[in-house]
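User: Earlier you gave me the apo prediction for this protein. Now I'd like the version with copper (II) ion bound, so I can compare the two side by side. Same sequence as before, with the ligand SMILES added.
Assistant: Got it. Here's the input I'm using:
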Amino acid sequence: MGLAALALSGCSITDINNPVLRAGWPEGITPQATRMQHLWTWSIVAAMLVGIIVWGLVFWTMLFHRKRKSSPEFPRQTQYNVPLELVYTAIPFVGIAVLFFFTVQTQNFVDKDHDPDTVGVHVDVTAKKWNWTFGYRNVNNHVLVESAADGAVVNGDADSVKAQLDGFDYTTPYVDWDFDPFTWGVDVPADEAEAYEDARGNPRLPENETAKAELQQEVERGRTKAGENLSYLWSDDIETVGTTEEIPVLVLPANTPVSFTLASVDVIHAFWVPQFLFKRDVFPDPVRNQSKNTFTIDEIYEPGAFVGRCAELCGTYHAMMNFEVRALPIDMYIDYMKLRDPEADDAQELSHSAAMEALAEDSKYTEYCEANEDVCAPLAVKTEPFEARYLQQADSADLVTASQN
Ligand SMILES: [Cu+2]
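And here is the structure of the complex with copper (II) ion:
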């Protein structure tokens, strides 16, 4: 049936990405998405084949082995045929084993962690009701972790972290979950572990002033307890935050591996870019909630603009908690970062939209931007900021009061 549909649609079987074989899925824009789509497509093909065989057997039995009016006898009865029963128990088991094998393979590919040697861009995604913050870690090779007592950088695989942590002062709160000695299974003497846990319980408010003020507000509103451990939240030198006028746009380079770390300030959200064919729940305190909050994409195939959404019901304005992924050509991405980086030579520290406007005016990109408006637009093009209804309500309440006077 799949093959017939394929033939009718006039698409080539070598093009597994054609709309019929995608069967309702959007076109993926990353190798991870492609791999998942292949699993999906071949699973459908397998299901169709099994369906054809089963329907065939059912109809064949109904047509040729029914009781006939002309005959007083029932057809020959064949239940309790042990060899046959073993066969039709074994065949589905083989089918499940094959599906399981390919599912695990795909899952490992999609769920892999970032390798600091190959991943050029690492994004810290912070979700909160109802907005996103996208921070760029490690821009210009700023140190990854500045948490060791003497300011030394802790980085690398479990063994080297262990070696680097030798003589580490556990009374200093750690700032990076990824390198939590407990997560890494490093042996810590009990008394030191206790001291470490005590210290780690202190809130670490982000250094960034806006984020700090926001968190302070959350504390005042009683949403976040004072003294709560917030060390899982990242604050980066370069961050993009949405406003009531601006959808947060996550700018990424095309054709470059990008890894993500997800964390929530408040409730459970979910990071979903439909064209990644992937979403992942965003938890507060991911480690203690046993949520694997990292993943990597090998690349985004081409520059473009792609909508992103929150996919976990998180409160009143959940449906409006959108963002946009903007993939830029790599040289343009580098220039974008220079415009935003506070530590760049003659730093300009522009906001996202100001940086995009500056790029569009750069003669280097004029021609490209005329041909690719979506890529160069300063604001999101795939989704719009939501209308804050409570503001409208406030307005109409004013009108009612005015008309009564
Ligand atoms: Cu949400």
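For your comparison, keep in mind: Residues 6-10, 140-188, 199-207 have pLDDT under 50 and may be disordered.
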